[in-house]
Write a structure and sequence with these properties.
Number of helices: 12
Bound molecules: flavin-adenine dinucleotide
Helix content: 10-25%
Oligomer: single chain
Shape: globular
Length: 517
């Protein structure tokens, strides 16, 4: 990079979104400077869960096994009334993204512990510089770059940093978003919730169910967090306010009403919050991108707020890193919002719908709809909350929908390479864009124009062989568990183009041309 820049990318805010942005970019060779207003990790446990999509992102960053040590598999979700009636249950099948039958689909986390481990992983990367206790007070940009003014909160000293791009991951009240004049549309729900985090003193029956106590007046979230923590989220009733819960003695009756006693837990901390359904007018202004809570806020019911931020940062990060290396054109950066906004809106809608179940506002038809198998479905039906992700817009060629493989995430079974190594598929796939052929070299299925298009992106061509034949080329992969060939077959495809984030960009059935930008 030329001397006029201090960094390729400046990251404002070093919460989960900023961290994943930093990890993605720095691990791909970009020079990153991050600014975090606080010295320490935000102590309140907010997010409670991550799933196998997020874990696959961690795998790509080479840190999933470290994160796995500070999180725990989630058993199942259930929605129950206080008189013991079960309204709905979602049992998690094993993951298809993180190796079938061996990895969980959902995990419980303790956000401060997970963020601490993410920070330790990031510290090991060359090319990443983090300024803690440093508040960004100015963001200016021209057509060449972004100038960040940051103030050391202890000394008051101000510095300026020039970067090619900036990511504002500075949370729901994002000072950057406000400074750029980007409106945040949507609403904040009036009800105030108390979130009580506890240390577990003894096990109780079914503690590891994520239970939504469904009730019109006092719906409660009851969830095991990792590392011996447990969380209850309880809405305040009309007439109640923060002032009524100033001490632990005032908070305890809320837990006692649920049958929890001082023999079970000790209260570690509690806080009050309101739910938002909000989205920024745009996720980008020039060279500055909004990501995470800075760009969108959703209620917690789908457990997808923090994860959406991490997925934003990863989506933007792998593209930015390649743009910085000159491998992709700048126009790629427009796909960030085109791809992330519909996904965020999907999870926001899901969270709002699940919120209606817990508050007993959902009609039986709505509950039924959440579990109904669509007609003529090609995919084995899974409730939307646990189903593997699909992209519905963005850098894709051809039809998207239930019968199409395009936009789906490639499953991740254990596979073999031509010289006998057995590993999770992603560990064996070449980095970048990969075309996979079912028992065929996918390059042979391309027209010269299509081949030239994929070659220009540095794509590799891999034939997937069943386990009972010889491999034919050093690039061949073996489908040891029979998962990939069965998956291609189900959608009637012979070859697919896989993006670096493992989503299917194109398939021979609808055309293997490089997607248009
Ligand atoms: C009770 C509750 C439960 C939740 N449950 C879930 C869940 O189960 N699953 C899930 O995925 N999500 C959940 N969420 C949401 C999740 O916690 C947030 O979406 C997530 O923390 C957002 O991450 P972020 O990095 O975008 O923002 P933040 O975590 O808010 O981080 C922003 C950072 O920017 C810093 N900053 C701000 N301004 C500046 C500045 N000017 N200069 C430098 N630094 C600055 C802040 O200090 C902060 O560290 C929950 C939230 C709550 C409140």
């Amino acid at each position: 990079m030329t001397q006029q820049y201090d960094a390729d990318v400046a990251i404002i805010g070093y919460g989960p979104t900023g961290l994943v942005g930093a990890l993605t970019l720095a691990s791909k060779g970009a020079k990153v400077v991050a600014f975090e207003r606080d010295q320490d990790i935000y102590a309140r446990a907010r997010a409670v869960t991550v799933n196998d999509w997020t874990m696959r992102i961690f795998q790509e960053l080479g840190i999933d096994e470290r994160i796995e040590k500070v999180i725990e598999p989630q058993r199942a979700l259930r929605w129950v009334t206080y008189d013991g009636q079960e309204i709905m249950r979602v049992v998690h099948p094993p993951s298809t993204l993180g190796t079938r039958d061996t990895k969980p689909r959902f995990y419980n986390i303790y956000q401060p512990a997970m963020e601490a481990e993410l920070r330790r992983c990031a510290e090991e990367l060359d090319g990443l510089e983090v300024h803690y206790g440093t508040e960004v007070v100015g963001v200016e940009q021209d057509e060449k770059g972004v100038t960040i003014t940051a103030r050391d909160r202890e000394t008051g000293a101000e510095t300026t940093t020039k970067a090619r791009y900036a990511i504002a991951a500075d949370g729901g009240s994002s000072p950057t978003r406000k400074a750029l004049g980007i409106a945040m549309h949507g609403e904040t729900v009036d009800t105030q919730w108390i979130v009580i985090d506890c240390k577990v003193k003894r096990w109780w029956p079914d503690r590891d169910f994520l239970t939504f106590w469904s009730d019109k007046e006092r719906p409660v979230v009851d969830i095991a967090l990792s590392a011996g923590n447990h969380r209850w989220e309880i809405p305040l009733k009309p007439g109640e306010s923060e002032a009524d819960f100033q001490t632990q003695d005032q908070v305890w009756p809320l837990l006692e009403a649920l049958g929890v006693t001082t023999d079970d837990v000790e209260i570690h901390q509690y806080a009050f919050y309101r739910h938002h359904v909000r989205g920024a007018e745009t996720y980008r202004q020039g060279r500055v991108f909004l990501a995470g809570d800075a760009a969108h806020l959703m209620p917690p019911w789908a457990g997808a707020g923090m994860q959406s931020g991490m997925r934003d940062a990863h989506n933007l990060g792998w593209k930015l890193a390649r743009v910085l290396r000159g491998e992709l054109g700048e126009e790629w950066l427009d796909t960030y919002e085109a791809e992330r906004r519909p996904n965020v809106e999907f999870f926001t809608g899901l969270a709002v719908g699940l919120g209606r179940v817990i508050k007993q506002e959902a009609t039986p038809e709505e509950i039924e709809a959440m579990n109904t198998v669509p007609e003529n479905t090609v995919t084995p039906f899974e409730p939307p909350l646990v189903a593997p992700p699909t992209m519905v817009a963005g850098w894709l060629t051809g039809e998207i929908g239930d019968a199409s493989i395009v936009g789906r995430m490639l499953p991740q079974p254990v596979a073999g390479d031509a010289v006998g190594t057995m590993a999770r598929l992603d560990e064996l796939l070449p980095d970048g864009f990969v075309l996979l052929g079912a028992q065929v070299d996918p390059a042979t299925l391309l027209s010269p124009e299509q081949k030239a298009g994929w070659d220009a992106l540095g794509a590799t061509y891999v034939a997937v062989r069943p386990r009972d034949v010889h491999t034919q080329a050093s690039t061949d992969l073996v489908d040891l568990q029979g998962v990939l060939l069965e998956w291609f077959d189900r959608y009637g495809v012979q070859a697919v183009a896989v993006r670096p984030d493992k989503f299917i960009a194109a398939a021979d059935k609808t055309g293997l041309s490089v997607p248009a930008l």
